């Protein structure tokens, strides 16, 4: 490897944009290695080995240099790394589609392989518009979404993100205005495994949602939401019954129901898909992030036969086709990743590997982050599945919290008023203790007074 630490940081400065940042802002650390759940960092303050509390933005669920995923990538490289999907197919893509259909809620039977999460949502929105057009409902050009939601950074996906509190308010003039339902009331999963929610607040939310959808039904093509957990909108958790209400509204008014499971899929909320918290099936579902275990960019849009048949009966192709659609290398790694997640846990018969891993994450995050609730600058500590959140009473001082967390052995990337973690599933109890201890220490030193 050429260039490490300060050399790379200096060369990066003013050269590369980083996510949601200015050129002048730069970064403080360079990654010089990654293995298991740990990153090797080099910065102006020296070398650090840290537990990756972000799992590379929630994707590297199996950690780094996983032997099974490495082997799958190497084996596919020996055959071919890429081939166009137009007019051709290959075994890794077919196998992946079959696995996704087997794992998804019953009824989702068809798969479009996209090259990123944002693009999979774009395809879902296109599909909804084409579906309505072919049903003679071409005037249905708008979407209903939840306040607080986030669905990507491309233009169509920006239009279904929260228009006020989201990251894209400066682009509010682009495209057709959509309909935004109020954010559902917050809820929490208690230690007994049942949901605590304010029944009156939920009933009031349902009344507002029904009124808004009813008023705009003839303009709407679909309802879009992140089920159970709104990620970039604040790691916000709401009652699964909201999904039942949205399903009823979609059916009543002839709308498609689109679930964005890019962040929530593959076990992160404590169910394999967040949709599994209730017994319903969306018409369309998008998955990504952890699909390849963080190795390569890949996402998928899935839909029911009823939706797909409308396009096929009319002879209308689904109008999207990325260059890297169905990339064989990414599909091969995704197949290995899904196998790792769903195979039986060798030490716990009757449980799949991801289930045992999530139980360990849930316990470690809940117990390890609990002391942060005692700090005066902390509003709430919450946990759902493999997600742990410390919400502050003020905007987080990102640079200070990050520096102290790194010094104490953890990598975190706070935002808004949140210091949160979504670590790799393969974290041991010791890894989780180190991670949560670093978070609590950083929060306490910066926001605890």
Structural write-up:
The structure is a single chain. The chain is an alpha/beta fold and 449 residues long. Helices cover 36% and strands 19% of the residues. The chain has 13 helices and 18 strands. The strands form five sheets. The protein has a seven-stranded mixed sheet with strand order 4-14-13-12-9-5-6, with helices on both faces. It has a four-stranded mixed sheet with strand order 1-2-3-17. It has a three-stranded antiparallel sheet with strand order 15-16-18. A hairpin with a 2-residue loop joins strand 15 (378-384) and strand 16. The relative contact order is 0.15. Its cofactor is pyridoxal 5'-phosphate. Catalyzes the transfer of the alpha-amino group from S-adenosyl-L-methionine (SAM) to 7-keto-8-aminopelargonic acid (KAPA) to form 7,8-diaminopelargonic acid (DAPA). It is the only aminotransferase known to utilize SAM as an amino donor. Its EC number is 2.6.1.62.
Q: How are the strands ordered across the major sheet?
A: 4-14-13-12-9-5-6
Terminus-to-terminus distance: 43 Å
Number of helical regions: 13
Poorly predicted residue ranges: none
Let me know the average pLDDT. Answer: 94
Number of strands: 18
State Rg: 22 Å
Query: What is the percent of helical residues?
Result: 25-40%
Give me the secondary-structure category.
Answer: alpha/beta
Q: What global shape is seen?
A: globular
Strand content: 15-25%
Biggest sheet record: 7 strands, mixed
Give the SSE layout.
Elements: H1 5-12, E1 29-35, E2 38-43, E3 46-52, H2 55-58, H3 67-79, H4 91-103, E4 108-114, H5 117-134, E5 142-146, H6 155-158, E6 179-181, E7 187-189, E8 195-197, H7 199-216, E9 220-225, E10 229-230, E11 236-237, H8 241-253, E12 256-260, E13 284-287, E14 299-304, H9 305-314, H10 328-342, H11 353-369, E15 378-384, E16 387-392, H12 398-407, E17 410-411, E18 418-421, H13 429-447
Parallel strand pairs: 3-17, 5-6, 5-9, 9-12, 12-13
Antiparallel strand pairs: 1-2, 2-3, 4-14, 7-8, 10-11, 13-14, 15-16, 16-18
Helix pairs in contact: 3-10, 4-10, 7-8, 11-13, 12-13
């Amino acid at each position: 490897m050429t260039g490490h630490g300060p050399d790379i940081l200096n060369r990066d400065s003013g050269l590369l944009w980083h996510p949601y940042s200015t050129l002048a802002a730069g970064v403080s650390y360079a990654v010089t290695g990654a293995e298991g759940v740990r990153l090797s960092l080099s910065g102006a303050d020296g070398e650090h080995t840290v537990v990756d509390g972000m799992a590379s933005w929630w994707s590297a669920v199996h950690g780094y240099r996983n032997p099974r995923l490495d082997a799958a990538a190497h084996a596919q490289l020996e055959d071919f790394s890429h081939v166009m999907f137009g007019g051709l197919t290959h075994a890794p893509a077919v196998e992946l589609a079959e696995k996704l259909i087997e794992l998804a809620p019953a009824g989702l039977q068809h798969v479009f392989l996209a090259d990123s999460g944002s693009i999979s949502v774009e395809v879902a929105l296109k599909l909804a518009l084409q579906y309505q057009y072919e049903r003679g409902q071409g005037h249905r050009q708008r979407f209903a979404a939840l306040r607080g939601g986030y669905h990507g950074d491309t233009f169509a996906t920006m239009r279904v993100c929260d228009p006020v509190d989201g990251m894209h308010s400066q682009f509010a003039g682009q495209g057709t205005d959509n309909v935004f339902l109020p954010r559902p009331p917050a809820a929490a999963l208690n230690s007994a495994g049942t949901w605590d929610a304010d029944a009156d607040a939920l009933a009031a939310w349902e009344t507002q949602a029904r009124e808004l959808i009813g008023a705009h039904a003839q303009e709407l093509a679909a309802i879009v939401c992140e089920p159970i957990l709104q990620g970039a909108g604040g790691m916000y958790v709401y009652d699964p019954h909201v999904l039942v209400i949205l399903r009823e509204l979609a059916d009543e008014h002839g709308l498609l129901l689109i679930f964005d499971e890019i962040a929530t899929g593959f076990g992160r909320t404590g169910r394999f898909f967040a949709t599994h918290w209730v017994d319903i099936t969306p018409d369309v579902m998008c998955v990504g992030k952890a699909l390849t275990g963080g190795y390569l960019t890949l996402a998928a849009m899935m839909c029911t036969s009823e939706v797909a048949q409308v396009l096929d009966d009319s002879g209308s192709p689904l109008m999207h086709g990325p260059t890297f659609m169905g990339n064989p290398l990414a599909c091969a790694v995704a197949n290995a990743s899904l196998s790792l997640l769903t195979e039986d846990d060798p030490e716990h018969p009757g449980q799949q590997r991801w289930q045992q891993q999530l139980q360990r994450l849930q316990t470690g995050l809940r117990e390890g982050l609990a002391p942060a609730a005692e700090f005066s600058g902390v509003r709430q500590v919450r946990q759902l599945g493999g997600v742990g959140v410390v919400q502050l009473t003020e905007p987080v001082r990102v640079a200070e919290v990050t520096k102290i967390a790194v010094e104490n052995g953890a990598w975190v990337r706070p935002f808004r008023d949140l210091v949160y973690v979504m670590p790799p599933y393969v974290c041991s109890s010791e890894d989780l203790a180190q991670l949560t201890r670093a978070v609590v220490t950083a929060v306490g030193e910066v926001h605890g007074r």
